[in-house]
Specification:
Shape of chain A: elongated
Number of strands of chain A: 4
Strand order of the largest sheet of chain A: 1-2-3-4
Order of helices and strands of chain A: HHEEEE
Distance between the termini of chain A: 101 Å
Largest sheet of chain B: 5 strands, antiparallel
Shape of chain B: elongated
Largest sheet of chain A: 4 strands, antiparallel
Largest interface: A-B, 32 and 30 residues
Structural class of chain A: alpha+beta
Number of strands of chain B: 8
Oligomer: heterodimer
Order of helices and strands of chain B: HEHEEEEEEE
Chain lengths: 144, 191
Amino acid sequence: MARSAQAFTLVEVLIAITLFAVGMLSVLQIFPINRRFLTQSALATQAAFLAQEQMETVQSVGYAALTPGTYQPATAASSVAGDPLSIFTEQTTVTLVDGNWQNSSTGGSTSATDVGLKRITVLVTWNERAISRQYSLSAIFNAP
Amino acid sequence: MRRNAFSLIELLVAISIASALLTATISVYSLFRKATNKDQSHSDTVQSGRVALDRLSREIRQTPDIRTIFPDNASDTSPAQPGEIEFEDGDEGNPATDLTYRHYYVTGGALTLEVRECFFVGQNIRVHWNDVDSNGNPATCQTIAGSTQVIAQNVLSMVLYGRKPLQIILTTQDLTGQTYVLRTSITSRNL
């Protein structure tokens, strides 16, 4: 009645099942990670549109009215409670640019030489899972 | 003889282990499918909003005339929020033949576009919607047959404020009911 050497023992079967379960669980981890990337890209898309909004709004003011410096200090994109966009903060800076399209050394102040070029920089920041993220949009605006 | 055969107990144990494994595998698989569907629907919704808003921005930026009037902000109730927009196509060559209006509206969960044209009665030269003919009669506008098309699916609403800049808030919704809001503003270059 010797046991056949070709059969699996219970321990072997249990080890196999455990390995299988561990493998499955590690594959399952892909989903939360994937979900996180989806959220990340969805938020980045919202931020990009908000930056574009700010850029369009600032440009519609006209060249002369854009005082160099922090044109708009960091403000929430929405003050309405419950608005999903209220997690975003927007800040707009205007810098005078020299003839080589570089920021003038004193470009952030009104005393710098104005050659008819200003750089508008919109910075959108938000927190995602306690990580601070940002999207920056920059454009050169010329005097009419 | 008996040594080569399976006992009933061995068979039962083998069957129960096999079915437990099978059940586990199937439930994991169905979990995969559910998660994939949900994520796919969510990313489709985000994509839908992005495509729609990009397209609208580009077209509105070059329009010479926006026909629809919008309230200035959320607290402004006059006029009421139309939830749709009709503007002149800024990409026209010859006005007499190419002058059209693009009408975007939300219907049945989809952002839909129809192209409209305006004529004076009895003539076939395209005119502006607010033009009047020599007798003082206004133009009549109609949707060009076959021009209606869906631009983006999963769109819940489109809200617009102001004029220059014009703010657009597009809300999309995925299959699980989760909403996604995109907001931007456009200053039309030709208004």
